[in-house]
Write a structure and sequence with these properties.
The structure is a single chain. By secondary structure, the protein is of the alpha/beta class. The protein has two domains: 10-81, lambda repressor-like DNA-binding domains (434 Repressor (Amino-terminal Domain)); 88-297, 2-Layer Sandwich (Endonuclease, Chain A). The chain has 13 helices and seven strands. The chain has helices at residues 10-26, 30-37, 41-49, 56-65, 70-81, 96-109, 128-138, 143-157, 174-178, 184-197, 248-264, 268-284, 291-297, and strands at 88-90, 112-117, 167-173, 203-208, 222-226, 233-237, 242-245. The chain has a seven-stranded mixed sheet, sandwiched between helices. Helix 2 crosses helix 3 (41-49) and helix 4 (56-65) runs antiparallel to helix 5 (70-81). It is elongated. Residues 1-5 and 294-298 have low confidence and may be disordered.
Length: 298
């Protein structure tokens, strides 16, 4: 899916959302804000949706009207200067919550979210105890920071419970289902949670079985977010930074990876059945059957 030149960039939408929040905090209507800097209300609306070409001078004027100063002003001015650039490697956010802000914003506006995970259960579908166990068992996160990150994760997950939630296609490698995190009881409840979530009309879960060969997504997890305005965006995250890909050739590669890995995945019904079986076996302590072996035997 190609992106037209007029499509809003991730940076422009991030800036627009921030400017809308500041306007509302300052108590201005769109019309009143426009009058203060001598532009139309429609132009303010386009800035706030990321659809308008950004003039740094107009952003600076609005920030003065909203009485925004200091580091926050400097951050938004810098963002305005880069608003037309596609692709965004965010490296400067000092905290986990700040690194997640753009992802949360994109997920909140998305029509469809497609997430492949190789190592662990997708974040949008994790139980609280499973998420906490990942952080604690990693040995990298200080105790005082665990709860803060839990709040951020819950904020992300709330998008799936809205009245009009985005669609979610969760593609999970079998390895992620078999890796026990937090102990067998925590893992079992996590798998049971997946079965329950798979019954929601906006959520589809696919399991990619280990059939003794690699697959197109073996390089690691990724998320493709489809926006109502603008082309799709690919999110890649690591310990210290976030990467958002917007250039059509890069996005198309991940869309092809998604297509290829879905050809190897179990269907939704078979995936739910397999996950439920794995949850039951965690209780009994019996060896957990490989889904490709089960298919061969069946």
């Amino acid at each position: 899916m190609a992106m037209a030149d007029s499509d809003p960039t991730v940076r422009a939408q991030e800036l627009g959302a921030a400017m809308r929040e500041l306007r509302e905090e300052a108590g201005f209507t769109v019309r009143a804000a426009g009058e203060r800097i001598d532009v139309s209300a429609s132009k303010i609306s386009r800035i706030e949706t990321g659809k308008n070409a950004i003039a740094v001078e107009e952003i600076a004027a609005l920030l003065a009207v909203y009485e925004v100063t200091g580091p926050r002003r400097a951050k938004l001015i810098a963002l305005a200067r880069e608003a037309d650039q596609r692709g965004w490697w965010q490296r400067s956010a000092p905290t986990f919550a700040e690194r997640q802000e753009t992802l949360i914003s994109l997920e909140s506006r998305a029509l469809m979210i497609t997430n492949f995970e190789l190592i662990a259960i997708p974040g949008l579908l994790q139980t609280g105890e499973y998420t906490r166990a990942i952080m604690v068992e990693s040995g990298l996160i200080e105790d005082g920071d665990v709860e803060k990150r839990m709040v951020t994760r819950l904020q992300r997950q709330s998008v799936l419970m809205r009245r009009q939630p985005p669609g979610l296609v969760a593609i999970i490698d079998e390895f992620a289902l078999r890796r026990v995190i937090g102990g067998r009881a925590v893992q079992r409840r996590q798998l049971e949670h997946l079965v329950v979530m798979a019954q929601r009309p906006n959520i589809v879960i696919h399991v990619v079985p280990n059939d003794d060969r690699g697959h197109a997504a073996i390089a690691g997890g990724f998320t493709v977010l489809r926006r109502p305005e603008g082309g799709p965006v690919v999110f890649l995250g690591n310990h210290t930074s976030s990467l958002f890909l917007e250039e059509p050739p890069e996005v198309l590669q991940y869309e092809e990876v998604t297509r290829q890995v879905l050809l190897r995945a179990l269907g939704p019904a078979e995936s739910a059945e397999y996950i439920a079986e794995q949850a039951t076996l965690l209780d009994t302590g019996e060896p957990r059957e490989n889904p490709s072996q089960r298919a061969d035997l069946g």
